[in-house]
Amino acid sequence: MGEIIDGRKLADEMQANMAETVASMVKKPGLVVIIVGENPASQTYVRNKEKTAVKIGIHSKIDRLPETVSEDELVSLIETYNQDDNFHGILVQLPLPKHIDEDRILLAIDPRKDVDGFHPFNVGKMMTGQAEMIPCTPYGIMKMFEAYNVDLNGKHAVMVGRSNIVGKPMMHLMLDANATVTVAHSRTVDLAAVTKEADILVVAVGQGHLIDKSYVKPGAVVIDVGMNRSPEGKLIGDVNFEEVKDVASLITPVPGGVGPMTITMLMDQTIRNAQK
Ligand SMILES: Nc1nc2c(c(=O)[nH]1)N[C@@H](CN(C=O)c1ccc(C(=O)N[C@@H](CCC(=O)O)C(=O)O)cc1)CN2
């Protein structure tokens, strides 16, 4: 059986270090999280962000807006926080309701406060090797590689999924770490033939248990970003953990893998912004 990457433990260790850093800061870092509507999963993630911020000593605020809020109202709220020196980070929880143009909202956030790393300015900086703000999930995965001594240099990494928040930034970060990167997605013909070539396999497609052991090369490092509900209501990843753990050399579980690192890296970028 492969080794399990304990994202919860790594996140706790990093958060303890962050708490020490924040304790020594005169002006505390501030983070505002804006959530629109009642999506239950988003509500949970936002609550967890607040709990983590409080634990570390970050001053945090959650703005809960009704599903009916207009795009203009949301933009003007963001503009208020852009001017507010008490907040070093602004985050709008995704997904947004259908009537709101996500691109316009992300563009409204001052890039200097964009702790999610989703603003096109920060995306461009990351793509040109000048990263300042990095999307938190890919950033957390890179920290996991570091902590578990996974060297990407010269390895074949396969990213399954091409979203703006995980797949595309992950592709860039792995490329910058000198991996040869292949991106596969829903239109890839014979996905298993592609993933079986991977030394490092990162999966973010939102399809419960899509990846079974027939998709994985023996000894591969497998990172599961998926967060799905099984028909029984259980939280499951995109990877069939029970099968794949016997083939992989290192593997993340769901829950307790990538998720806790996403929130941790958000705190990291908020603190760094406050230190600037
Ligand atoms: N503005 C953003 N929106 C979204 C992001 C993001 O990075 N920025 N990512 C996801 C959701 N997300 C954070 O927002 C997130 C998802 C899951 C977890 C997590 O810790 N999961 C736990 C399990 C939690 C549970 O029991 O339900 C785990 O994996 O152990 C953290 C953050 C989409 N939106």
Automatic annotation (TrEMBL):
Pathway(s) the chain acts in: One-carbon metabolism; tetrahydrofolate interconversion
Boundaries of every Tetrahydrofolate dehydrogenase/cyclohydrolase NAD(P)-binding domain copy: 135-275
Residue ranges occupied by any Tetrahydrofolate dehydrogenase/cyclohydrolase catalytic domain in the UniProt entry: 5-116
GO cellular component, as recorded: cytosol
EC number(s) stated in the UniProt entry for this protein: 1.5.1.5, 3.5.4.9
Pfam families in the cross-refs: THF_DHG_CYH, THF_DHG_CYH_C
Keywords: Amino-acid biosynthesis, Histidine biosynthesis, Hydrolase, Methionine biosynthesis, Multifunctional enzyme, NADP, One-carbon metabolism, Oxidoreductase, Purine biosynthesis
InterPro entries in alphabetical order: Aminoacid_DH-like_N_sf (IPR046346), NAD(P)-bd_dom_sf (IPR036291), THF_DH/CycHdrlase (IPR000672), THF_DH/CycHdrlase_cat_dom (IPR020630), THF_DH/CycHdrlase_CS (IPR020867), THF_DH/CycHdrlase_NAD-bd_dom (IPR020631)
CDD domains xref list: NAD_bind_m-THF_DH_Cyclohyd
GO BP annotations listed: L-histidine biosynthetic process; methionine biosynthetic process; purine nucleotide biosynthetic process; tetrahydrofolate interconversion
Residue sites binding NADP(+) per the record: 161-163
GO molecular function ontology, one term from the record: methenyltetrahydrofolate cyclohydrolase activity
Keyword Ribonucleoprotein attached: no
KW Transcription (keyword) present: no
Reactions the enzyme catalyzes: (6R)-5,10-methenyltetrahydrofolate + H2O = (6R)-10-formyltetrahydrofolate + H(+); (6R)-5,10-methylene-5,6,7,8-tetrahydrofolate + NADP(+) = (6R)-5,10-methenyltetrahydrofolate + NADPH
Family the entry assigns: Belongs to the tetrahydrofolate dehydrogenase/cyclohydrolase family.
Described purpose of this protein according to its UniProt entry: Catalyzes the oxidation of 5,10-methylenetetrahydrofolate to 5,10-methenyltetrahydrofolate and then the hydrolysis of 5,10-methenyltetrahydrofolate to 10-formyltetrahydrofolate.
Subunit structure: Homodimer.
This protein's name: Bifunctional protein FolD
Organism encoding this protein: Vagococcus coleopterorum
